[in-house]
Amino acid sequence: MSNTAPTIHCKTTLHRPAATGKAPTWTFLVLPKSASAELPARGMASVTGTLNGAPFRATLDPDGQGSHWLKVPRKLSEAAGASVGDEVTLEFAPVSEEPEPKVPPDLRKALTAAPAAKTVWAGLTPLQRRDWIQWIVSAKQAETRARRIDNACSMLAGGKRRVCCFDRSGIYSKGLSAPQAAD
Length: 183
Fold this sequence. Notes:
Layout: E1 8-13, E2 27-30, H1 33-36, E3 45-51, E4 54-62, E5 68-72, H2 74-79, E6 87-94, H3 105-113, H4 115-122, H5 126-137, H6 142-157
Antiparallel strand pairs: 1-6, 2-5, 3-4, 3-6, 4-5
Helix pairs in contact: 3-6, 4-6, 5-6
């Protein structure tokens, strides 16, 4: 790892999320609170590290309980030789520069149609853009998501750079929380 931040070491268990229709192909883990406490923020934190020696780069999400969780794609769990229920070893450190978030297609289309909003969007930091995206994708209903995209474009066009009332820690709003583990 090429970070100057100290490496955080911990062990935790790999879980399968409870099925909500189609069986998930990914797993997840929740960091021990002691490991999470070493991160620079209670909100989302981008890290680089290893899972059982397999390298990864990801953004840890707050679990709403004072810790963080990580969605583990199937390729990473296979590379780590880990299965549901296994204890895994993590070594990770915060990245020195936040990665650029992936803009959802519906938001990208709306920004293209709103030049003033797109101009403000272009001047935001990756962390600010990530907050806007998280606020939009955390909507549970399609109508709410569409309304948030419209509101985002209006607020951005008006010069607003941060989402109002967005709880980055997940403690006050359950929009950010770890999935429920399958039994």
